[in-house]
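Methods, example record. To illustrate the input and output format used throughout this study, we show the complete record for SsrA-binding protein. The sequence lines were provided to the predictor; the line carrying C-alpha coordinates was produced by it.
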Amino acid sequence: MVLLGSEVKMLRDGAAELTDSWCAIENGEAFLKGVNIPVMPGAAFGHEAKRPRKLLLHESEIEAIRKSVEREGMTVIATRLYFKNGRVKAEIALAKGKKTVDKRESLKEKDATREARAAMERARGGAARARSAGLRRPE
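The corresponding predicted structure is encoded as:
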Protein backbone atom coordinates (compact mmCIF):
# COMPACT_ATOMS: atom_id res chain seq x y z
CA MET A 1 0.00 0.00 0.00
CA VAL A 2 1.20 3.50 -0.75
CA LEU A 3 0.75 5.60 2.39
CA LEU A 4 1.93 8.86 3.90
CA GLY A 5 3.87 8.97 7.17
CA SER A 6 0.96 10.29 9.23
CA GLU A 7 -1.25 7.47 7.89
CA VAL A 8 1.26 4.84 9.01
CA LYS A 9 1.46 6.40 12.47
CA MET A 10 -2.32 6.35 12.80
CA LEU A 11 -2.40 2.71 11.66
CA ARG A 12 0.17 1.82 14.32
CA ASP A 13 -2.24 3.32 16.86
CA GLY A 14 -4.93 1.00 15.48
CA ALA A 15 -7.09 3.82 14.16
CA ALA A 16 -8.47 2.55 10.85
CA GLU A 17 -12.00 1.75 9.77
CA LEU A 18 -12.60 -0.74 6.97
CA THR A 19 -16.39 -0.74 7.17
CA ASP A 20 -17.12 0.76 3.74
CA SER A 21 -13.88 -0.16 1.97
CA TRP A 22 -13.63 -1.68 -1.49
CA CYS A 23 -11.04 -2.12 -4.20
CA ALA A 24 -11.37 -0.50 -7.62
CA ILE A 25 -9.23 -1.12 -10.67
CA GLU A 26 -8.53 1.97 -12.76
CA ASN A 27 -6.10 2.18 -15.67
CA GLY A 28 -4.46 -1.12 -14.72
CA GLU A 29 -3.86 -0.06 -11.11
CA ALA A 30 -5.67 -1.20 -7.96
CA PHE A 31 -6.92 1.38 -5.47
CA LEU A 32 -8.37 0.82 -2.02
CA LYS A 33 -11.27 3.22 -1.52
CA GLY A 34 -13.49 4.02 1.43
CA VAL A 35 -10.88 3.22 4.08
CA ASN A 36 -11.06 5.76 6.87
CA ILE A 37 -7.69 6.53 8.46
CA PRO A 38 -8.31 9.49 10.78
CA VAL A 39 -6.16 12.60 10.44
CA MET A 40 -3.29 12.71 12.92
CA PRO A 41 -3.74 15.55 15.42
CA GLY A 42 -0.88 18.04 15.32
CA ALA A 43 0.63 16.71 12.08
CA ALA A 44 2.38 19.37 10.01
CA PHE A 45 1.56 17.62 6.75
CA GLY A 46 -1.64 15.70 7.41
CA HIS A 47 -3.58 13.54 5.02
CA GLU A 48 -7.12 13.24 3.75
CA ALA A 49 -9.02 10.68 5.86
CA LYS A 50 -10.87 8.83 3.07
CA ARG A 51 -8.62 9.27 0.05
CA PRO A 52 -8.04 6.42 -2.44
CA ARG A 53 -4.87 4.49 -1.60
CA LYS A 54 -2.90 2.65 -4.25
CA LEU A 55 -2.34 -1.07 -3.73
CA LEU A 56 1.01 -2.44 -4.83
CA LEU A 57 0.06 -5.61 -6.69
CA HIS A 58 1.63 -7.52 -9.57
CA GLU A 59 0.08 -6.97 -12.98
CA SER A 60 -1.10 -10.60 -13.10
CA GLU A 61 -2.84 -10.21 -9.71
CA ILE A 62 -4.61 -7.05 -10.85
CA GLU A 63 -5.73 -8.75 -14.07
CA ALA A 64 -7.07 -11.80 -12.17
CA ILE A 65 -9.05 -9.53 -9.83
CA ARG A 66 -10.40 -7.48 -12.74
CA LYS A 67 -11.55 -10.61 -14.63
CA SER A 68 -13.29 -12.14 -11.63
CA VAL A 69 -15.08 -8.87 -10.84
CA GLU A 70 -16.29 -8.47 -14.43
CA ARG A 71 -17.20 -12.10 -15.02
CA GLU A 72 -18.94 -13.02 -11.79
CA GLY A 73 -20.28 -9.65 -10.72
CA MET A 74 -18.41 -9.82 -7.46
CA THR A 75 -16.73 -7.01 -5.55
CA VAL A 76 -13.35 -6.80 -3.84
CA ILE A 77 -13.31 -5.71 -0.20
CA ALA A 78 -10.56 -5.16 2.36
CA THR A 79 -10.86 -7.54 5.28
CA ARG A 80 -7.92 -6.34 7.39
CA LEU A 81 -4.82 -4.17 7.50
CA TYR A 82 -1.67 -5.47 9.19
CA PHE A 83 2.06 -4.85 9.46
CA LYS A 84 4.64 -7.25 8.04
CA ASN A 85 8.35 -6.39 8.25
CA GLY A 86 7.48 -2.75 8.94
CA ARG A 87 5.20 -2.42 5.90
CA VAL A 88 1.45 -2.06 5.86
CA LYS A 89 -0.34 -4.90 4.07
CA ALA A 90 -4.00 -5.09 3.10
CA GLU A 91 -5.84 -8.39 3.00
CA ILE A 92 -8.46 -8.29 0.26
CA ALA A 93 -11.17 -10.78 -0.63
CA LEU A 94 -13.71 -11.33 -3.38
CA ALA A 95 -17.23 -10.99 -2.02
CA LYS A 96 -20.62 -11.61 -3.51
CA GLY A 97 -23.29 -9.04 -2.73
CA LYS A 98 -26.77 -9.92 -1.55
CA LYS A 99 -29.53 -10.23 -4.09
CA THR A 100 -32.58 -7.99 -3.73
CA VAL A 101 -34.68 -10.88 -2.35
CA ASP A 102 -32.08 -11.60 0.34
CA LYS A 103 -32.00 -7.93 1.32
CA ARG A 104 -35.77 -7.85 1.75
CA GLU A 105 -35.63 -10.93 3.97
CA SER A 106 -32.92 -9.35 6.12
CA LEU A 107 -34.96 -6.15 6.47
CA LYS A 108 -38.06 -8.14 7.49
CA GLU A 109 -36.07 -9.97 10.17
CA LYS A 110 -34.61 -6.71 11.51
CA ASP A 111 -38.06 -5.08 11.63
CA ALA A 112 -39.58 -8.07 13.42
CA THR A 113 -36.79 -8.08 16.00
CA ARG A 114 -37.09 -4.32 16.52
CA GLU A 115 -40.87 -4.56 17.00
CA ALA A 116 -40.50 -7.43 19.47
CA ARG A 117 -37.96 -5.47 21.52
CA ALA A 118 -40.17 -2.38 21.49
CA ALA A 119 -43.17 -4.41 22.68
CA MET A 120 -41.11 -5.92 25.50
CA GLU A 121 -39.89 -2.47 26.53
CA ARG A 122 -43.43 -1.11 26.55
CA ALA A 123 -44.58 -4.04 28.69
CA ARG A 124 -41.70 -3.62 31.15
CA GLY A 125 -41.78 0.18 31.10
CA GLY A 126 -45.54 0.41 31.71
CA ALA A 127 -45.41 -1.66 34.91
CA ALA A 128 -42.29 0.13 36.14
CA ARG A 129 -43.81 3.58 35.56
CA ALA A 130 -46.97 2.59 37.42
CA ARG A 131 -44.96 1.37 40.45
CA SER A 132 -42.84 4.52 40.55
CA ALA A 133 -45.98 6.68 40.48
CA GLY A 134 -47.35 4.76 43.48
CA LEU A 135 -50.11 3.11 41.49
CA ARG A 136 -51.07 -0.51 41.88
CA ARG A 137 -52.62 -2.87 39.46
CA PRO A 138 -56.18 -3.79 40.30
CA GLU A 139 -56.33 -7.32 41.66
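Annotations derived from this record:
The longest helix spans residues 100-132.
Strands lie at 22-26, 29-33, 53-55, 75-84, 87-95.
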